[in-house]
Specification:
The chain is α+β, with helices and mostly antiparallel strands. The protein contains 13 helices and 32 strands. Helix 10 (520-528) packs parallel to helix 11 (586-592).
């Protein structure tokens, strides 16, 4: 038979045993000094209750024998008091078989046992051994003494004694290579959401979430059988959606630029398979194809898929190049310019790439030796640590010069008015092609964006370093958008969407598909707000709608400070059906992207928020807003944003 114990309980028992063990053969020591008298205890020991609003389970032991499983556990309420009178409990058992984890509904493999409730299992018993201490004996015909089992426990009647969380009390080693952490990078704190099956999220015996183990109790490696007429049978596995199908098939079209072949996204551990007919492989490849030729040693399906799909080439390119651009300067003609460079990186060595020689001006199919399909730059106004618009961009007079050292200089004989009180900075982006590259609005390129520091408008002396107020993490976007390419127009997902800010900033006043202005508001809207239902041909929700929008920690891992947001308007024609000449205060712009009801807008405006107010002519970015959102809603306040949105994992 197989027996398992909770380690923390074993440790306490061991300490108690050492404390009680007597010393033999030695001389008695001297009596110690008298101690302080102890406080009088409560008569009869700790209080015992028969109700709970929260039920905590301390797992003690798990014994697998022929035809049955025995569990011991202790339960306490929300105040830590032992609970007597438990009448309801359930155990669910899946077996490790040659086909992976399996539990059939007919009990042929694994099974479930219930004590109490409307349909108790015959022969199952729940015995109270001591105050709060219970033994559950679950008859399961398919289990053997040497069976490797995945066991889930829940206790409580949901009324007098609250239902406990589901608890994984036993799990075979190596049954999955995904982890709670990889799943929670998107499905953050699933149990707290209103998403399907949230209540089934399970804990381990240490009280930590075991997301994958909990799912596998029902979504095994073996699918439920289907009859010839298409109806579901009770044989095979428990669910039609196996765990590997949930991961491999249901995530295929998860989101734009999500790469199913980037197995590292979910599989934190090496994936070892030896046949295309095995679990996971057949979901995508079918079983009619010949077996994959697999090396006997050291094979990892993650690397295999990355290589076969070409993803490894893109990943190598992503870390193999670096772009930079100079501070803005004026040439001999008095024109504003910036000079960009591209470097190939190999370890500690950087070699400048000759942009002119490597440029493919036709933007056609990938040409070896000419991988650069885009190399362009902008000049921006920069004020109060924010980009406030395009000072120099695509105009009829713009021209580029390829220099002898391999760099490229962009000059702008014509610049825009209204930036006389701002500093001036530059951004440059360079897009590369590769074998299999497709010419489509630069969305398939591997692109690199560089920003310069800012110079004084009048003197061109260094004014300030360019610093983006980055409230997201460097991998916030690439957690879901995993194929290493761009969203569009050479704007890559890396470094928290750093590339995107060159066009989507406070002053660019882009339409953003009429979703929201700037960068932060647009991202909020496109994922969880009005922009989520935008499509090229017809409104269609993107996959972010399936995630919990309250879990801001998905992107904002270090929280959000509303007080740190510059008190500076965002030009907002995206909120105004594309008609320019309006601006919106910053917190309002971010919040209303999702909270867009009339009552929400009214609340914001009552507290100084401004929505699509007429823009000041000229230097609009110097005018302070009247917004006071941070007074009540900053993190840590009584009505702080952290009270309503989750910023902790």
């Amino acid at each position: 038979m197989m027996r398992t114990y909770n380690k923390s309980v074993l440790a306490m028992a061991l300490v108690a045993a050492i404390g009680m063990a007597g010393c033999s053969d030695g001389e008695d020591g001297k009596d110690g000094a008298p101690g302080e008298p102890g406080a009088p205890g409560e008569p009869g020991g700790s209080p015992v209750v028969e109700t709970s609003e929260v039920t905590n389970v301390e797992f003690i032991s798990h014994l697998v024998e022929e035809g049955k499983v025995t569990l011991e556990f202790e339960i306490t309420n929300e105040e830590g008091n032992l609970i007597n009178g438990l009448t309801d409990a359930a155990v669910y058992l899946a077996l490790k078989t040659d086909s992976g984890i399996q539990r059939s509904r007919d009990g042929e493999v694994g099974g479930s046992v219930t004590v109490g409730g409307d349909a108790p299992t015959e022969g199952a018993t729940l015995t109270m051994l001591d105050d709060g201490h219970y033994q559950l004996v679950a008859p399961i015909a398919s289990v053997q003494a040497d069976s490797e089992v995945l066991t889930r426990l829940q206790v409580g009647d949901g009324e007098t004694i609250a239902d406990s969380p589901y608890i994984i009390v036993n799990k075979p080693e190596g049954i999955h290579t995904t982890t709670t952490e990889t799943c929670y990078s998107c499905h953050v704190d699933y149990a707290t959401s209103d998403i399907k099956h949230a209540k089934y999220v399970a804990l381990n015996t240490s009280g930590e979430v075991d997301f994958v183990g909990g799912c596998m109790v029902c979504h095994n490696n073996v699918p439920r059988d289907i009859a010839e007429d298409g109806s579901s049978l009770d044989t095979g596995g428990y669910a039609k959606n196996t765990m590997q199908k949930l991961g491999h098939i249901n995530h295929q079209k998860f989101e734009k630029d999500f790469a199913p072949t980037n197995c590292y996204t979910c599989h934190a551990e090496p994936v070892i398979n030896t046949s295309i007919a095995g679990n996971g492989c057949s979901d995508c490849h079918g079983t009619g194809q010949s077996a994959v030729i697999v090396p006997s040693d050291g094979f990892d399906a993650r690397a295999f898929h990355a290589e076969k799909s070409g993803l490894d080439t893109l990943q190598a390119m992503r870390v193999g190049y670096r772009a930079e651009t100079t501070d803005p300067f004026k040439n001999d003609l008095g024109e504003w310019c910036t000079t960009m460079s591209l470097y190939e990186v190999a370890g500690e060595t950087e070699t400048m790439v000759n942009i002119g020689d490597s440029y493919n001006p036709d933007g056609g199919a990938h040409i070896p030796g000419q991988p650069i399909v885009y190399a362009g730059a902008y000049l921006h106004g920069y004020y109060d640590e924010s980009i406030v618009g395009r000072f120099g961009g695509h105009t009829d007079g713009e021209y580029k010069t390829d220099n002898a050292d391999g760099s490229r200089t962009h000059c702008y004989p014509v610049t825009n008015a209204g930036f006389e009180s701002s500093a001036i900075m530059a951004s440059a982006r360079i897009g590369l092609s590769y074998d299999g590259w497709v010419d489509s609005d630069s969305e398939y390129s591997i692109s690199f964006t560089a920003y310069s520091d800012a110079v004084d408008y009048d003197t061109l002396e260094p004014a300030m370093a360019y610093e983006r107020r980055l409230s997201v993490t460097s991998d916030s976007c690439t957690t879901c958008h995993t194929n290493e390419t761009n969203f569009h127009k050479n704007g890559a997902y890396n470094n928290g969407g750093m590339d995107c800010v060159a066009c989507h900033n406070n002053g660019q006043d882009r339409r953003g598909a009429y979703s929201a202005p700037g960068y932060g508001p647009m991202v909020h809207s496109m994922h969880w707000g009005r922009g989520n239902m935008l499509g090229d041909k017809a409104p269609e929700a993107n996959s972010a709608a399936s995630l919990n929008g309250d879990n801001c920690v998905s992107c904002h891992a270090d929280g959000v400070s509303l007080a740190d947001i510059p008190n500076q308007y965002i030009l907002s024609k995206a909120f105004n059906e594309g008609v320019a000449g309006v601006m919106t205060s910053p917190v309002t712009a971010n919040c209303i992207a999702c909270h867009d009801s009339a009552s929400a807008q009214n609340h914001m405006e009552q507290n100084g928020g401004e929505y699509n107010v007429p823009a000041v002519t000229g230097e609009w970015y110097k005018q302070d807003t009247m917004e006071s959102c941070a007074t009540c809603h900053d993190t840590g306040k009584s009505f702080g944003i952290d009270m309503f949105h989750n910023f902790e994992r």
